[in-house]
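Help wanted!
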Amino acid sequence: MNKPSPIEQPEPAQSTGNVPPPLAMLAELTHRCPLSCPYCSNPLTLSGKDGELDTSEWIDVFRQAADIGVLQLHISGGEPASRRDLVELVEGAEKAGLYTNLVTSGVGLTPRRMDELEQAGLEHIQLSLQGTNAELADRIGGYKGGFERKMQVAAEIAKRGIPLTLNAVMHRHNMDDLEHTIEMALELGARRLEVACVQFHGWALKNRAALMPTRQQTDKVKQQVAEAQERLRGVLAFDFVPPDYYADFPKACMGGWGSTGLNITPDGTVLPCHVAQSIPHLEFGNIRQTPLRDIWYDSAAFNAYRGTDWMPEPCTSCERKEIDFGGCRCQALLLAGDAGAVDPVCTRSPDHGRITDILTAEMAADTPEFTYRKL
Amino acid sequence: MTLELTTTDRPYLPRGVRMHKDRVRGGVVLLAPEKAILLDDIGVAILSRIDGKRRFGEIIADLAEAFKAPPAQIESDVQRFLGGLRARMYLGVTP
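Answered by r_m:
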């Protein structure tokens, strides 16, 4: 599973005070997953089944989330279908009034289970795509037979008419296959295709040299997406997450820290984004001890990089400060050594040279083997 | 393809797209796959008239009367709003 942009930035909501209520929540039900993608968005230290929130704890979080304004629930993992209580959880989320979206590789979704999920009110499925053929997809996912299983699941989704987004995670090994990916989205009856280029944190960072696309690939993919968007208007919607190492400006990570979305880990830790635990000086609350409302509004971690007051120069005087919010805090720590610095992806960052150095070094070297994620 | 609706088109919200009363923020939002769109009063007025049965022309006439505005002006506003939704696949159309 890979979720470079697990929570799409929704339209700005009306604020009830200085801090707006959250709109979207990513619930990582479990870290367990039959796949072992080398760009998995879960942390390097994965937690086992024992620490996971149980059914009633999750349903309580869903109610708390709805009470403080969350509208969209992304049910993810690991592989959420690895949870035996998945149907019950979807039902609980629907009863709480949340819009339910299942983020899945498809493995573990039998036709019978899909019937039950549909009956529980599941509203949308985001199906990940590792590659457009079995050989490539199973090599990247590290799971033989995964692609075939996924195609069966996609057919079952189409048969039922459940709204489908295909999430194609792109990198050096499959980026040249975009045209085929688009054809596949159309064949599978997806309404939306997410072309999500790998973002380099956690497992993907470990595999950066193996996954980094070339500039040529990046330019081509941008052009292809723009062309396909025009050609398929009203047929297939696109969301595009470009490879940010080649960008001039950073991505507005999470649409601004603590502004629209939050993430719950399998053991109930509440994060401003799924990588936030890579910032060691922040302490994150857990819903086993603290109400979700208090964590969202009052915790030091959620307030650390909220808004624009924390920003350094050149952000403070930049006209883009409320467009990209200084970029990704985790990437700033990783590449500039300070989570409160400008994201070095920004060409105005004093540390932007780090990005060009990395690209030069990784493009010159041979492509290494993958380090697959494992528990 | 053109996203403009013709007078006889019957627009509808497809499965997975629905209006939702937001009890925390107040007002109404349109919920769609991985997206929430805050609607203003005009948006609500338009979408609450869309049921898959009424034709685009009837909807425009109804809105023009409700807002006491010239149908041509209403039509261009509604085309723009619905065209945006259609491009994101949040609106279906039956001929």
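OP: Thanks! One thing I noticed: The CA atoms of residues 37 and 71 of chain B lie 26 Å apart.
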